[in-house]
């Protein structure tokens, strides 16, 4: 078997193990939440009999490990259970919301990744120049403000003052792609501003780190232009750290957008989770957590695989 | 007489240290005609590489040309724009660096790096034609499989192969001038001879002028028409090669020649005493089933030096790892004064550890740069001898005196502020601090200049005489063996091919491999390379 294939299988197995540990952790954490679900849902005036019946219905009278195993067994079969709030299957709920979250994440990533890597390369090329400083100051300030602050500032100017973009991003179910891109522009821009700095600075640092390498000096001595030195000689060797930081930020775009989704009233997974916590819709919270964890694990796996695939020393043995 | 290709007049280069600019090259002249090879020699820090790069109009970060003229084929390189200089680099002046492994880009195939110059940067030819040229040059430089080797990545080749591939790359645009910066220093002698031959033939056939930078006189004698000696940024003297070898004028030049005269008189191996260290039938492996050492046996006696020689990959350093317990052997044992040592480092008692100490090749990386000499030496003194406070201080001072460094001056300094030779002396003192009976010296002089290296060898010899130390001297340099050894163990591919007293090893008949090693060490004779190649081809 090709070493890369073996490595992917190995890491997938490890990922499953991690996911299992996370499922246990999520379940226990939620067990520790104060308050009783049945009383919360049925209200203060419910009689003890109705509460007991409700608990029996949901299996809440069972010991924790039985409920955990039930839950886990369901997930293995692809069944996340039913929402307590509206009795719909959780997998349907998640599918729609996850789609929205992915749309926003891809939107932001398509802008921010090329932008960040490009700016990082240019900053490395012109390091110490005004351009370099300017880019650094701008990206650092955008990352230094909390994202809801950035979001409200954008909303204030681009939406309320100048009325270019809508401040509420819910595009309904019948919007075309253009409409969707237009309506979600502000949350996407907020995310771009938040993640670009990290990726850009890492790209810049990874490239500059390599510029003292003898093979870079060799490239200069072959008469290569600065752009060529950066793109052809430094960048291919800096891919591993860049890929890793990109993966980390992509994961953030999916799992860390809760606040942005709430601010822009965007029907994504993050908002679903926040709503479900408020409603004590525990099965939905658990399922969302698990989805976030899987995405995180998959993205990191992807980054590791890519980092190896782009490194000839690991791909071609002696 | 034709017009010179390269003329350098009164060149001055400065390097930045903190806020000051200190001179590196202090007004050196140089002239080179087409097809001529100039040897540039000197110790490290003499400014050889700086000179070589300046001939391309290039200065490293933190250095600047502060005066003088550099004229290449009628063009003033100092006055040329960056763009014009880029047009010359690689195309008309090319560079071959010391470590080909570090100077090839690990991300690209050799052939792409070859054709980058002629096809992509300078637009002289197509990718396809450049690749065709590469194959021919690879064949001419005697690379194995010239049609396919270009499609490999740098890490898939050996050091000697890479060095030849780099020479090919430098020739890709058929330049008028090639700067060779210590191209064979990192190679084994048996590989060096092949690379020297390839370089010389290629330079002759293409009629390229060259500046050949090295610290090895015997190597430069084979390559250069003229030799220029540099010392701390200044020219000592320049002469045609044969005259320089026969009749060096300046005292410094003469001292370079004299270095190889140090030689310890061989002391016989005692027959009736237990050896300090006995390596008995040791086999070791990193991966299961692939032995890196096979049935190795030899003894080391008190007050004697055993040199373990061989090329890289022969298992010399693995031997050191087995003796120190870092790599437990799969068979055989190591005995210290007649008692078997536990195979694993973790199982050894403090007393065992104390008796076996080590001095490393690179004193730079073997010492913590954030510790003062006091801390570096104090730690083993406390750990092994249990001395603290005043007693420890006295011991440190005694050690520094023993390695010929003034305690008052050095005790509170950091390794970073020391010269290469001084650092290696601290390495020796650290090994001595444990008061061992046996010290492994792993290529301790190979990173040092000849004069400095000789000082280290003399010091080791004196300490041995005073303290009755046993040394195991790992080296690939036969001159070092001749200088310091009493007994020689020759290794190849993890096996001992021959062992015996030094006098026996250096007199025929030899084992074929020993013979190959011995005959590959360059002599200070300009005809040595031709003669050796001829003898080998006849054989």
CATH architecture of the largest domain in chain B: 3-Layer(aba) Sandwich
Taking the sheet with the most strands of chain B, its summary is: 6 strands, mixed
Q: What percentage of amino acids of chain A are in beta strands?
A: under 5%
**CA gyration radius of chain A, whole angstroms:** 24 Å
The protein's oligomeric status is heterodimer
Tally of alpha and pi helices of chain A:
15
Query: Strands of the largest sheet of chain B, in order across it?
Result: 6-7-8-3-9-10
Mean pLDDT of chain A: 86
CATH architecture of the largest domain in chain A: Orthogonal Bundle
> How many β-strands of chain B, per DSSP?
20
Percent of residues in β-strands of chain B: 15-25%
Give the N-to-C terminal Cα separation of chain A: 17 Å
Pfam family, one (chain B): oligo_HPY
Keywords (chain B): ATP-binding, Cell membrane, Membrane, Nucleotide-binding, Transport
Family (chain B): Belongs to the ABC transporter superfamily.
InterPro entries (chain B): AAA+_ATPase, ABC_Ni/Peptide_Import, ABC_transporter-like_ATP-bd, ABC_transporter-like_CS, Oligopep_ABC_C, P-loop_NTPase
């Amino acid at each position: 078997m090709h070493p890369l294939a073996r490595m992917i299988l190995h890491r997938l197995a490890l990922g499953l193990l991690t996911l299992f540990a996370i499922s246990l952790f999520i379940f226990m954490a939620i067990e520790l939440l104060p308050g009783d679900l049945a009383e919360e849902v049925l209200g203060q005036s419910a009689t003890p009999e109705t509460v007991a019946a409700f608990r029996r219905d949901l299996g809440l009278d069972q010991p924790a490990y039985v409920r955990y195993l039930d839950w886990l067994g369901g997930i293995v079969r692809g069944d996340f259970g039913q929402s307590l709030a509206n009795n719909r299957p959780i997998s349907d709920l998640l599918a729609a919301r996850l789609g929205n979250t992915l749309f926003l994440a891809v939107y932001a990533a398509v802008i921010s990744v090329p932008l960040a890597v490009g700016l990082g390369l240019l900053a490395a090329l012109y390091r110490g120049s005004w351009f370099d400083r300017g880019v650094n100051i701008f990206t650092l300030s955008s990352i230094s403000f909390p994202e809801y602050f950035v979001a409200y500032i954008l909303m204030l100017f681009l939406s309320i003052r100048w009325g270019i973009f809508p401040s509420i991003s819910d595009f309904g179910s019948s919007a075309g792609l253009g409409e969707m891109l237009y309506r979600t522009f502000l949350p996407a821009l907020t995310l771009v501003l938040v993640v670009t700095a990290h990726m850009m600075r890492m790209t810049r640092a990874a490239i500059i780190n390599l510029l003292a390498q003898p093979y870079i000096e060799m490239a200069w001595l072959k008469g290569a232009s600065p752009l060529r030195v950066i793109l052809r000689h430094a960048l291919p060797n800096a891919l591993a750290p860049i890929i890793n930081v990109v993966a980390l930020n992509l994961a953030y775009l999916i799992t860390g957008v809760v606040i942005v989704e709430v601010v822009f009233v965007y029907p994504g997974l993050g908002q679903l989770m926040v709503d479900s916590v408020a409603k004590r819709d525990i099965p939905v919270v658990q399922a969302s957590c698990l989805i976030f964890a899987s995405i995180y694990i998959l993205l990191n796996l992807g980054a590791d695989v890519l980092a190896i695939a782009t490194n000839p020393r690991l791909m071609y043995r002696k | 007489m034709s017009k010179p290709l390269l003329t350098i007049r009164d060149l001055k280069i400065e390097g930045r240290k903190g806020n000051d600019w200190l001179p590196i090259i202090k007004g050196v002249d140089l002239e080179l005609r087409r097809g001529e090879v100039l040897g540039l020699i000197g110790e490290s820090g003499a400014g050889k590489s700086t000179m070589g790069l300046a001939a391309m109009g290039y200065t490293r970060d933190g250095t600047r040309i502060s005066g003088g003229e550099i004229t290449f084929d009628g063009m003033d390189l100092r006055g040329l724009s960056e763009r014009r200089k880029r047009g010359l680099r690689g195309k008309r002046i090319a560079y071959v660096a010391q470590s080909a492994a570090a100077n090839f880009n690990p991300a690209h195939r050799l052939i792409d790096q070859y054709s980058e110059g002629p096809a992509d940067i300078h637009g002289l030819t197509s990718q396809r034609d450049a690749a065709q040229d590469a194959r021919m040059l690879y064949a001419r430089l005697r690379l194995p499989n010239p049609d396919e080797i270009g499609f490999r990545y740098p890490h898939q080749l050996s050091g000697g192969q890479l060095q030849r591939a780099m020479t090919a790359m430098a020739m890709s645009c058929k330049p008028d001038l090639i700067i060779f910066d210590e191209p064979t220093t990192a190679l084994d002698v048996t590989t060096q001879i092949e690379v020297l031959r390839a370089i010389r033939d290629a330079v002759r056939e293409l009629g390229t002028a060259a500046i050949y930078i090295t610290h090895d006189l015997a190597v430069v004698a084979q390559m250069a028409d003229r030799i220029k000696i540099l010392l701390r940024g200044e020219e000592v003297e320049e002469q045609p090669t044969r005259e320089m070898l026969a009749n060096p004028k300046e005292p410094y030049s003469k001292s370079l020649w004299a270095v190889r005269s140090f030689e310890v008189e061989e002391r016989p191996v005692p027959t009736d005493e237990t050896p300090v260290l006995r390596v008995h039938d040791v086999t070791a492996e990193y991966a299961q089933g692939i032995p890196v050492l096979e049935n190795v046996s030899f003894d080391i006696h008190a007050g004697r030096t055993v040199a373990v020689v061989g090329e890289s990959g022969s298992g010399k350093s693995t031997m050191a790892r087995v003796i120190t317990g870092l790599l437990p052997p799969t068979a055989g044992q190591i005995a210290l004064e007649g008692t078997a040592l536990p195979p694993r480092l973790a199982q050894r008692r403090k007393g065992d550890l104390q008796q076996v100490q080590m001095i490393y090749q690179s004193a730079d990386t073997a010492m913590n740069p954030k510790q003062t000499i006091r801390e570096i030496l104090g730690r083993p003194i406390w750990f092994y001898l249990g001395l603290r406070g005043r007693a420890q201080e006295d011991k440190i001072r005694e050690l520094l005196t023993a390695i010929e460094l003034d305690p008052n001056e050095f005790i509170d300094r950091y390794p970073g502020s020391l010269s290469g030779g001084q650092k290696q002396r601290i390495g020796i003192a650290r090994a001595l601090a444990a008061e061992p009976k046996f010290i492994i010296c792993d290529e301790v002089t190979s990173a040092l200049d000849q004069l400095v290296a000789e000082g280290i060898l003399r010091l080791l010899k004196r300490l041995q005489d005073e303290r009755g130390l046993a040394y195991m001297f790992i080296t690939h340099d036969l001159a070092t063996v001749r200088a310091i050894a009493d007994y020689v163990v020759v290794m190849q591919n993890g096996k001992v091919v021959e062992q015996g007293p030094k006098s026996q090893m250096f007199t025929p008949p030899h084992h074929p491999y020993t013979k190959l090693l011995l005959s590959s060490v360059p002599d200070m004779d300009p005809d040595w390379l031709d003669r050796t190649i001829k003898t080998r081809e006849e054989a």
